[in-house]
Amino acid sequence: MISRVLVPMDKSEMAEHALRYALEAFPDAEITVFHVVGEPSALWGEAASLALADDIGQAAEEHASDVFDDARAIADEYDREIATDVQVGHPTRAILNAAEGFDTVVIGPHGGSLADRLLMGNVAETVFRRSPVPVTVVR
């Protein structure tokens, strides 16, 4: 039985589809929306701003607040509560590390800009191949 579901999210439509799928497919499971900040980008903008922050944890929470607000609004449509977690680092590594504490991962096939996908590789594909738990990729 699936009781804990990890849903990595960014600001993409595909991530929102993944959350909706998780809420529908696992109505009795605890859903945790997971956001990673500080990932590499063409100009390292987000990572640089975190490095300069006095409190990196608080800065990460602020970066994740829009994603979590959107996720809570979606969960409200299903009359569900969600947990949230934010990590600083590389998305693939952070997701794989977090996945160990869950029964399954539900993820969108991609997110972010084309430049981000080319520089980082396909996060969903790597998570799918290396996850210690089953992964559902939702389109």
From TrEMBL:
<feature type="domain" description="UspA">
    <location>
        <begin position="1"/>
        <end position="139"/>
    </location>
</feature>
<protein>
    <submittedName>
        <fullName>Universal stress protein</fullName>
    </submittedName>
</protein>
<dbReference type="InterPro" id="IPR014729">
    <property type="entry name" value="Rossmann-like_a/b/a_fold"/>
</dbReference>
<dbReference type="InterPro" id="IPR006016">
    <property type="entry name" value="UspA"/>
</dbReference>
<dbReference type="InterPro" id="IPR006015">
    <property type="entry name" value="Universal_stress_UspA"/>
</dbReference>
<dbReference type="Pfam" id="PF00582">
    <property type="entry name" value="Usp"/>
</dbReference>
<comment type="similarity">
    <text>Belongs to the universal stress protein A family.</text>
</comment>
